[in-house]
Amino acid sequence: MLLNIDVALDYECTEALSILLQIEAADGDGQTIRKAGLDIEGDPSTRMIEGDEGIGSRRWIWSERDFTARYKAQVEVTRQPFKLAELEREPLVRLPADVVKYIFASRYCDPIAFGSVAIEKFGGIPSGKTMAAMRDWVEENFTYDSRASDASTTGFDTWEKRAGVCRDYAHVMISLARSLSVPARMVSVYAPDVNPQDFHAVAELWLGGEWRLVDATGMAHPHQMVRVGVGRDAADISFLTAFAPVNLKSQSVQVSRET
Questions:
Q1: For 182-206, what is the HEC assignment?
Q2: In Å, how far are 107, 110, 147, 201, 209 from 92, measured between CA atoms?
Q3: Can you tell me the distance from the alpha carbon of 113 to that of 176, in angstroms, rounded to the nearest whole number?
């Protein structure tokens, strides 16, 4: 599947500042960049660095004026669909070294807070079948509401409110999985059916010996997602981090299938 991505960012900067930008599609692991370009107004100084786990990239930008950028890409996704319920958790003693850290708590995802929930509501068996039941339950019982959370909202806050946006759904899914010692991390993606169109966040679970994309909102499917970057939770995958005050003027994300 070919997906076209078009992102436009326009921010007012009150002073010269450093910006860490992570909006460019990753190359590899079921997706191939056919063409891509990032244009930043004013041609500021930039430096590319590798993304976490070697997935994707980030750019340091030194901006001395308002920040305006346009990113366009065409990405071919060859990732195949899978049945989450049929996957098994790998024994903990066999986990690769770089996967182990995704069992433990992070800023927004505390598995200890979800321990009794996972057992009482989902049976507590660390399997793909349980993960699928968790994903389905969150989609069916939560309300997608941008007013329900802010930058400080944790996964357990969202569980209690039963409402939030994509990052909140992902935090809940990650926390539930980790509570049963299933490694889970957060992924920023582009997907064509996200409504409203925006940067999107999903969970990724280590099942069957590899990472599997899982979207608890139900709006995106693994074979139609373009990965951007990965991390422990939302703190690691922000599309833009500004190290001084900025004001949003406009922002748009458009993802469409090539026809």
A1: CCEEEEEEECCCCCCCCCEEEEEEE
A2: 23, 19, 38, 26, 11
A3: 9
Instruction: Give the span between the Cα atoms of 218 and 134, in whole angstroms.
Output: 12
Report which of 171, 176, 205 is spatially closest to residue 118, judged by C-alpha positions. Answer: 176
pLDDT above 80: residue 100: yes
134, 35: one domain? no
Give me the number of domains the chain comprises. Answer: 2
Q: Residue 45's domain is classified under what CATH number?
A: 2.60.40.2250
Clarify whether residues 214 and 253 are in a common domain: no
**Domain of residue 107, residue span:** 84-236
Do residues 217 and 145 touch, judged by C-beta distance below 8 A?
Answer: no
Q: Are residues 54 and 155 in the same domain?
A: no
d(CA 203, CA 139): 13
Q: Which two tokens stand for residue 153?
A: 């909202």
153 and 169 Cβ atoms separated by less than 8 Å: no
178 and 73 within one domain: no
The pLDDT tens digits of the residues spanning 186-240 come to 999 999 999 999 999 999 999 999 999 999 999 999 999 999 999 999 999 999 9
Tokens read off for 34: 């056919």
Overall pTM > 0.85:
yes
pLDDT digits (tens, 9 = 90+) for 37-94: 999 999 899 999 999 999 999 999 999 989 999 999 999 999 999 999 999 999 999 9
